[in-house]
Specification:
Elements: E1 4-9, E2 12-17, H1 28-42, E3 49-54, E4 59-61, H2 69-74, H3 82-89, H4 92-97, E5 108-112, E6 115-117, H5 119-125, E7 129-133, E8 137-139, H6 153-160, H7 163-172, E9 176-177, H8 178-183, E10 189-191, H9 196-208, H10 212-225, H11 230-244, H12 248-258
Parallel strand pairs: 2-3, 3-5, 4-6, 5-7, 6-8, 7-10
Antiparallel strand pairs: 1-2, 8-9
Helix pairs in contact: 1-3, 5-6, 6-7, 10-11
Length: about 270
């Protein structure tokens, strides 16, 4: 059984963490496979949107595997196979695998089919949209283990939710309910667990039907504007608009609208 499943259809890549017996925890093998997958999807012109979910019906991802990955990182366990040795040889793999240090350059929809804890929560933070199962718990528990979130959780959380809520999650190590996250505007949808993937795929398909260069440009401006002044952000927006108006897709969109037909975008 592979620890990572990937399927691409109609410009949407569905990525599934497949370790349900371990709550989809990030083992060295899963870290290695994710780190290898993301650049492949980024560079695939057929992929316009990525959906990330987990196998099973209780947990999206429980973070780094406490039996395999954490002891290896702390030196409490010696490497036992090639995946272990690769993770030790290149510490940067974990930052790529969790999308802390890697940009897909296309929208990522996280379909959290269950609890998202520690590294799982950090992967949710890396997404652009999030659909979460009703009753799921979302949290960063690292301080209870003598650590802090190191895959973007400490740095990103207060940027994406109210600071008071972020501080409570980070400092107590206690999770919040999906419903509270929705009320705070932290996630896009909370639906029954058996509807999470379908809802996320619906969002992804809607996005994928739009002009891919425009989607990438809008996402880039939105993500980069957070650290810019308003004047700088407006300049970045103007720069992207000027690039888009020279594309074939920018001609096709208005033409299709006037001809009352669906547009056919080619990403050029």
């Amino acid at each position: 059984m592979t620890v990572l499943d990937v399927e691409t259809k109609d410009h949407v890549a569905l990525v599934r963490l497949n370790r349900p017996e371990a709550r989809n925890a990030l083992s060295p093998e899963l870290v290695g496979r994710l780190a290898g997958l993301w650049p492949t999807l980024r560079d695939d012109p057929a992929v316009r949107v990525v959906v990330l979910t987990g196998a099973g019906d209780s947990t999206f991802c429980a973070g780094f595997d406490l039996a395999r990955s954490i002891p290896l990182m702390t030196g409490a366990r010696a490497p036992e196979d090639d995946w272990d040795r690769a993770m030790l040889a290149d510490p940067g793999l974990v930052g790529i695998a969790t999308l802390r240090d890697f940009d897909l350059e296309c929208p990522l929809v996280v379909a959290a089919n269950g609890h998202a804890i520690a590294g799982g929560m950090e992967m949710l933070l890396a997404g652009d949209l999030a659909v979460v199962a009703a009753g799921a718990r979302l949290g960063l528990s690292e301080v209870r283990l003598g650590l802090i979130p190191g895959m973007g959780g400490t740095a990103r959380l207060a940027r994406l939710m109210p600071p008071a809520m972020a501080a409570e999650i980070l400092l107590t190590g206690q999770p919040i309910a999906a419903e509270a996250a929705l009320a705070a505007g932290f996630v896009n949808r909370v639906v029954p667990a058996d509807q999470v993937l379908a809802t996320a795929m619906g969002l992804a398909q809607t996005i994928a039907a739009n002009a891919p260069l425009a989607i990438k440009a809008a996402r880039a401006v939105m993500r980069r504007s957070g650290d810019l002044t308003e004047v700088e952000a407006l300049a970045l927006e103007r720069e992207q608009v000027q690039k888009l108006v020279t594309t074939e897709d920018a001609v096709e969109g208005p033409r299709a609208f006037l001809e009352k037909r669906p547009p056919v975008f080619h990403g050029r």
